[in-house]
Each structure stands twice: as structure tokens, then as C-alpha cells.
Design a protein that fits this description.
about 260 residues; Diaminopimelate Epimerase, Chain A, domain 1; 2 domains; five-stranded mixed β-sheet; 4 helices; 17 strands; about 15% helix; binds ligand LBFN2T5F
């Protein structure tokens, strides 16, 4: 069956978006999702996202990594599906939807999608890194000379190493230059560096504040595919009222052939 799709990107994290309100897309076909996401044999994307009906909210987001498997929350994908829902006429400029990690509020203002993330109850600090879950698991580590850093090799070593076992983790490397912060991410399920990771940016922003590198409750991050902003309120050992803010753009539409 031919499958109409839309391609979106949020700071270079790119997704195949499918309007699955009629439940026509086969949801357990790992091979098909992997094939569609393949950059040589398919459409090419870091992940695939289904927009589905929800009984009481605006819609449900169903997320698959490029390896074809359903996974935990995707922040950039969450921003892209809000823009997609607006393009489909499902919402106007604000919404509440359900994703794998629970409900998310979001709104679009000045062409930027503001996505509310789940509260983070704690951040674990180790000698050389921090770990937190922002809807997906994230390792955050400071490095020097981020531009020259081998994110794919070092990220894979940590992702598959003893620290995270079979479940693995996304791995973020961060560098501070003066008041500004840059980050690069090795993504679990893509098994490569991506140009941006929304839950990763959220994790890095909170880790930066937690370590006292900034007192501000608003952190701007340079990612390989652009810029993201994260705002938050400290709350006990964690953070509440967390928003991931950035652009989410349609790239093209097409039809996946029979
Ligand atoms: N690109 C995402 C993260 C998607 C989930 C991740 N690959 C995982 O499996 O943990 C984002 O923008 O948050």
C-alpha cells in the first residue's frame, strides 16, 4: 500500500511524519520503519513519527528510532509533530498531546515551537559525567575542543559500555566557551551522531545549571544543526516547568511506493 508521508526537521534532527489517524500504517513492522529511515535505500531520517487520534487530547505521538524500534521520548520529534499537527489542521497554535512519557503541552510563537517536557526529579553526578532522564536517558560529559571530538567513536564506547548495559543511553558532549555552550550528541537507536537531540539539549541545559555553570533559568545551546533554548525552574533536587524551544520545519512531502 502506498504511504503518504511528510519530512520534517528540527535543528537538523530529521523525521518522517505520517498521519495515522485512519490507522493504516502497520505499527509493528520494524523492518519497514528501518528501511524508510535508511539514508541510502529509503527516504532517510533519524526517526519516524505517527500522529494518531487520542480519545480526549489533540493527538497521540508514536515515535520510532531509525533502527525501526519504538523508543522513549524524542524532544525534537515532539516539536516537529506540533508543527505537523498545525499543518494538518488538527491544532492551531497550542496543544496538549500524549507521547510515550506522558502528556505534553506545547505552543507555537514567532515560528518557534515551545514544548513542555516532563519534570526531572533528580540528576546523578559522577566524577566525569552526569546522568539524567528527560523522557529519554542522557549521559552528559564535558570535553575540550568539541569541534575536533570524535563523537561517534567515543559515544558508541560509552553507549555500549558497562555503564548503561543493554538498554544503553544517549551520550552528550558539551563545551563551554565564555558564556556560551555547545553540544554534540550520539543518539541511541540511530547509532550515530545526529545534528541535534531535543531531550539531550534539555538534559545538557539542566546539567549546566545543576553544576553551577550558570545561574540563569534559560540556557541557549549551540547544536550542530542550529540553536535551541531550554527554560526551567529549579525544584528541590530537580527541575519543573521545563520548556524546549526551537524551530520545526517541513522539508518535503512524498509517497512511499507499494
Ligand atoms: N532525537 C531525540 C531522541 C530520540 C530518542 C533516542 N534516540 C532514544 O532512543 O533514547 C530527541 O530529540 O530527543
Amino acid at each position: 500500500m502506498a504511504i503518504p508521508f511528510y519530512k520534517y526537521q528540527g535543528t537538523g534532527n530529521d523525521f518522517i511524519m505520517i498521519d495515522n489517524r485512519q490507522q493504516l500504517f502497520s505499527k509493528n513492522d520494524t523492518k519497514l520503519v528501518k528501511w524508510m529511515c535508511d539514508r541510502k535505500f529509503g527516504i532517510g531520517a533519524d526517526g519516524l513519527i505517527l500522529l494518531e487520534n487520542h480519545p480526549t487530547l489533540d493527538f497521540t505521538m508514536v515515535y520510532y528510532n531509525a533502527d525501526g524500534n519504538p523508543s522513549s521520548m524524542c524532544g525534537n520529534g515532539g516539536r516537529c509533530i506540533v508543527a505537523f499537527a498545525k499543518q494538518l489542521g488538527v491544532i492551531t497554535d497550542q496543544t496538549v498531546f500524549e507521547a510515550v512519557d506522558g502528556l505534553h503541552e506545547a505552543f507555537i510563537k514567532n515560528d518557534l515551537v515551545h514544548l513542555k517536557m516532563q519534570d526531572v526529579s533528580s540528576i546523578t553526578r559522577y566524577e566525569n559525567h552526569m546522568f539524567l532522564n528527560t523522557g529519554s536517558p542522557h549521559h552528559v560529559q564535558w570535553v575540550n575542543d568539541l569541534a575536533a571530538f570524535d563523537v561517534k567513536t567515543e559515544g558508541a564506547l560509552l553507549r555500549y559500555g558497562d555503564l548503561y548495559g543493554k538498554a544503553g543511553s544517549n551520550i552528550n558532549f558539551v563545551e563551554q566557551t565564555g558564556d556560551s555552550f555547545a553540544m554534540r550528541t550520539y543518539e541511541r537507536g540511530v547509532e550515530d551522531e545526529t545534528l541535534s537531540c531535543g531531550t539531550g539539549a534539555t538534559a545538557v541545559a539542566l546539567a549546566i545549571h545543576h553544576q553551577g555553570k550558570t545561574n540563569s533559568h534559560e540556557v541557549d545551546l549551540r547544536v550542530e544543526g542550529g540553536r535551541l533554548k531550554v527554560t526551567f525552574e529549579p525544584a528541590g533536587t530537580g527541575y519543573n516547568n521545563i520548556f524546549l524551544i526551537g524551530p520545526a520545519k517541513p522539508v518535503y512531502t512524498g509517497v512511499w511506493p507499494d
